[in-house]
């Protein structure tokens, strides 16, 4: 009898092991979906389609890009988290995913607990540009001038609570300057007023600002990345003057926290392989972004630090969402 029970136990154990192995080997066994919290045609959507097309070919399953705009991208995150946590649903999100928990009163999920950072794929530093009439040549000039004229120096941004706005608030906090934020409804009118001298400064995308810097219509004072960038090698990183400063845009994939470790690791490796391929690298750069490849643990550490940093900036600056 004991021998029979032992044989039955071994048979059940073997069946369970085979079932788990088959489940692991068979992933993905249905179409995958990449949730995007923004309309088609924007940078997040473009990146999702770049990766989705190639993931579909490599994983032998259709990959659908599901656009669900609304609430600064949180609607897409909510929908992804409501799907089964088996790895077939992914979220592609920009840095905003780390900011909105501090701006919105209530989210239907816990960003830091429910989302599992999967793969960091790209970043986009900004450049701090000034109108030439201020006569500023570097960051030291700006900090000294702003301290002598508290509240009189202003900087434009396309919206309240976006990275260019928070980049300025972080600069204020770390430098002791007291610059005033001037919000606009979009980057175009903000840039127009900066070029005409109606506003003093702006944390702008490198791609947008570069032609004006080259034409000497704007003065580049510093980049928001942690180190100098290839597009502007002679422009110092703000971190060279303010060591802990960093305020770049970035993009990454997330999955549900319940996705099995083996599945998330397989997806992470697949995305990293694509990021390192020649054609994806070229496409990311052609969209004004810098490719990023890290371990999953490194992205997780970075994401948690971003949540803490932007929470502190929003709280100390008393920013309220539009």
Can you tell me about this structure?
The structure is a single chain. The chain has about 325 residues and is of the alpha/beta class. It folds into 2 domains: about 160 residues, D-Maltodextrin-Binding Protein, domain 2 (3-Layer(aba) Sandwich); about 120 residues, D-Maltodextrin-Binding Protein, domain 2 (3-Layer(aba) Sandwich), CATH 3.40.190. Helix content is about 45%, strand content about 20%. It is built from 12 helices and 11 strands. The strands form 2 sheets. Strands 2-1-3-10-4-11 form a 6-stranded mixed sheet, sandwiched between helices. Strands 7-6-8-5-9 form a 5-stranded mixed sheet, sandwiched between helices. Helix 4 runs parallel beside helix 12 and helix 7 crosses helix 12. The longest helix is centred in the N-terminal third of the chain and has 25 residues. The N and C termini lie far apart (about 75 Å).
Brief descriptors of the model:
322 residues, alpha/beta, D-Maltodextrin-Binding Protein, domain 2, 2 domains, six-stranded mixed β-sheet, 11 strands, globular
């Amino acid at each position: 009898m004991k021998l029979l029970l032992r044989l039955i136990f071994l048979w059940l154990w073997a069946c369970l092991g085979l079932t788990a192995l088959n489940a692991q080997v068979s992933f993905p066994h249905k179409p995958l979906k990449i949730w995007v919290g923004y309309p088609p045609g924007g940078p997040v959507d473009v990146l999702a389609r770049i990766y989705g097309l190639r993931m579909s070919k490599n994983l032998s399953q259709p990959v659908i890009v599901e656009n669900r705009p609304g609430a600064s991208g949180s609607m897409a995150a909510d929908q992804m988290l409501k799907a089964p946590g088996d790895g077939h649903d992914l979220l592609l999100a920009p840095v905003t995913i780390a900011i909105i928990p501090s701006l919105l009163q209530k989210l239907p999920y816990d960003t830091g607990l429910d989302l599992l950072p999967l793969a960091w794929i790209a970043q986009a530093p900004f450049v701090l540009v000034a109108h030439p009439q201020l006569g500023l040549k570097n960051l030291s000039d700006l900090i000294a001038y702003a301290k002598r004229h508290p509240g009189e120096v202003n900087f434009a941004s396309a919206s309240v609570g976006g990275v260019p706005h928070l980049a300025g608030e972080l600069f204020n906090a770390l430098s002791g300057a007291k610059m005033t934020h001037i919000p606009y409804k979009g980057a175009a009118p903000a840039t127009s007023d900066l070029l005409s001298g109606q506003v003093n400064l702006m944390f702008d995308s490198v791609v947008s600002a570069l032609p004006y810097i080259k034409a000497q219509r704007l003065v580049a004072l510093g980049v928001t990345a942690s180190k100098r960038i290839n597009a502007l090698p002679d422009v110092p990183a703000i971190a060279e003057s303010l060591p802990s400063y960093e305020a770049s845009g970035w993009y990454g994939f997330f999955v549900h926290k319940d996705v099995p470790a083996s599945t998330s690791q397989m997806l992470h490796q697949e995305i990293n392989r694509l990021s390192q391929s020649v054609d994806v690298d070229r496409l990311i750069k052609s969209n004004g972004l810098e490719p990023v490849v890290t371990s999953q643990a490194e992205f997780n550490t970075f994401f948690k630090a971003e949540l803490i940093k932007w929470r502190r900036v929003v709280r100390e600056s008393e920013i309220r969402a539009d």
